[in-house]
Design goal:
Mean pLDDT: 87
Low-confidence stretches: 263-277, 373-378
Largest sheet: 6 strands, antiparallel
CATH topology of the largest domain: Serine Threonine Protein Phosphatase 5, Tetratricopeptide repeat
Radius of gyration: 24 Å
CATH architecture of the largest domain: Alpha Horseshoe
Strand content: 15-25%
CATH class of the largest domain: Mainly Alpha
Number of helices: 11
CATH superfamily of the largest domain: Tetratricopeptide repeat domain
Oligomer: single chain
Number of strands: 17
Amino acid sequence: MATAGPDRPSVDVRILGPVRLLVDGHHIALSGAKPRALLAVLVVNRRRAVPKTVLLEAVWGDDPPPRAMDGLYAYVSNLRTVLRGAGIPDRDVLRTVDAGYLLDIADEQCDVGRFEAARARGAAAARDGDSRTAAACFAAALDEWSGAPLTGLDELAFAANFATDMTERRHDVLVDRIAADIADGRASAVIGELTATTAERTVDERVWRLLIKALYVSGRQADALTACLRLRRNLVRELGADPQPETVDLEDAVRNHRVPAETPSTRGATTRDLPNIRRRAWLRVGDGERIPVPPSGLRIGRESDNDIVLDDARVSRKHARILHRDDGIFIRDRDSANGVYVNEVPIRADTALSDGDVIRVGSTRLRYGANEEPASPA
């Protein structure tokens, strides 16, 4: 692995913001979007071989020009020239491997690697009950960000997917840091931050639970109950849903002046420890394209304001909803006329979905997946 030594300059690549290459702390210019996209794909896949075909798709999209491969060779050669000019042994760092290329840098040599390492340390500290260390590690992870991931490359599909994925990870780490701060006795200090976050995440129950708890332990019971009411209204208006059981239990504890019971998140297990389905979940209608399940979930029905509109006489106007919950992805029947079936079994309540489940609404079948996408640059 190529690392800095006594006579070797240090490399630092940043992609959690604009793509930047730094050598010994000095910014090395990379002209053009395509060279930056090439470097970004290699960083995302650091220490793994990336096939040339994957690089072509990442840099040029689904329809590369006839001479795109020549262009790829030119961009790789230019990147090697830039590294060599900065005193980096380019053949050690950017290696040619079977059918592709490999960027041989350590996690600490890129911001995305440092972010993930700090997040993992924070999660481990949280599990051990060391809230102060957890909060510091999560804060260090957040400090690696300098803007929207891969700024300026969002017209490329791989960049847009990576940005969506990492932005959701950043949100999870932010919430984990706030939870650790509350557990460490700093509830009052995070109320403003939580209030701003709930304004953006109007039905994110984990964030709302943290706000309710922070208000309550800060001696503001009335404000905590007002937050409970606002969350209930948001859920009904936006999802047609009731609060999760954990939220109901917390509201009951606040109303009756009881110490809120610890949930897995307050005991140290963070949302990042849950199965990594939140960023991979998708639905497919028949043989159509995969439809990612966003954090807000998906509404399914016949009316045009649904996220998935089905032209099926047996589908109700507002038929079903796919929901994110702390313990996974669930489907809910929105009081449809003909019911919702998972693997041909009618559901009676919110039902957890597993990779490969077949959902039937009316006469239409949808497949749910939470597996990894086929080999891709991100």
